[in-house]
């Protein structure tokens, strides 16, 4: 929705590829892209689109990874400003992200891999009584399945039940320390690095709700 607004307000025509249920369809800037057949890969879809040239703007983690995985044969007709796929995977997968933070010495909540229910046996009781939560490695698929961003852990039995449910859904999670406090204590520093690895802009914001 933010991308459509930003482009629409300055007169840049944009076409959204989204499901029929996506709320972005209610935007006054919305224009549907040519239909994409179920199961059609992105390269196959791009070959079928009757557009001479267009910039691809991914609006979710999964789309960033999908576009980063495109071969160079699509770069001229469908350019996109995305990092290399290895960098995307290191940030999108929450376990890989935690390992990256550990390797670089960046402060972060304690995070533990949970490959199976048996891994909970190695977790102290104190960590399963309201101080941690089950955080998905793939946030987008998790939200689509459970409609929440994670599960708070209040007891060992509750953690086991939730983890079994998650495994049945074919998803993976990590056990992460819960940092308490209101949204107003959340500060985000974001930016843009160009193809020459030069920082072009920094943007800082505070969570309010």
Question: Layout of helices and strands, plus pairs?
Answer:
Blueprint: H1 2-9, H2 42-48, H3 61-68, H4 85-92, H5 94-104, E1 111-114, E2 132-136, H6 139-146, E3 151-153, H7 156-168, E4 173-177, E5 187-193, E6 199-206
Would you write up a description of this structure?
The chain is an alpha+beta fold. Helix content is 30%, strand content 15%. The protein is built from seven helices and six strands; from the N terminus they run H-H-H-H-H-E-E-H-E-H-E-E-E. Helix 3 (61-68) packs antiparallel against helix 4 (85-92). The two termini are 19 Å apart. The model has no long low-confidence stretch (mean pLDDT 92).
Question: Percentage of helical residues?
Answer: 25-40%
Proportion of beta-strand residues: 15-25%
Poorly predicted regions are: none
The tally of helices reads 7
Q: How confident is the prediction overall: mean pLDDT? A: 92
Question: H/E element string?
Answer: HHHHHEEHEHEEE
Shape: globular
The biggest sheet, with number of strands, parallel, antiparallel or mixed sense and barrel status, is: 4 strands, antiparallel
Structural class: alpha+beta
Radius of gyration: 20 Å
Count of DSSP strands: 6
Strand order of the largest sheet: 1-4-2-3
Q: Whole-Å distance between the termini?
A: 19 Å
């Amino acid at each position: 929705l933010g991308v459509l607004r930003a482009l629409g307000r300055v007169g840049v025509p944009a076409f959204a590829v989204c499901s029929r249920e996506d709320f972005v369809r209610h935007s006054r800037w919305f224009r549907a892209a040519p239909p994409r057949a179920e199961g059609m890969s992105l390269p196959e879809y791009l070959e079928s689109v009757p557009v001479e040239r267009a910039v691809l703007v991914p609006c979710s983690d999964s789309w960033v990874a999908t576009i980063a995985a495109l071969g160079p044969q699509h770069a001229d007709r469908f350019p996109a400003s995305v990092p290399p796929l290895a960098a995307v995977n290191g940030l999108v997968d929450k376990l890989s992200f935690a390992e990256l933070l550990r390797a670089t010495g960046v402060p972060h909540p304690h995070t533990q891999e949970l490959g199976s229910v048996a891994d909970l046996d190695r977790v102290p009781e104190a960590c399963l009584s309201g101080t941690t939560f089950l955080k998905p490695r793939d946030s987008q698929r998790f939200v689509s399945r459970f409609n929440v961003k994670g599960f708070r852990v209040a007891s060992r039995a509750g953690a086991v039940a939730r983890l079994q449910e998650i495994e049945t859904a074919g998803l993976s999670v990590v056990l992460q320390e819960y940092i308490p406090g209101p949204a107003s204590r959340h500060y985000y520093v974001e930016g843009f690095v160009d193809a020459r690895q030069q920082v072009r802009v920094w943007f800082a914001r505070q969570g309010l709700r």
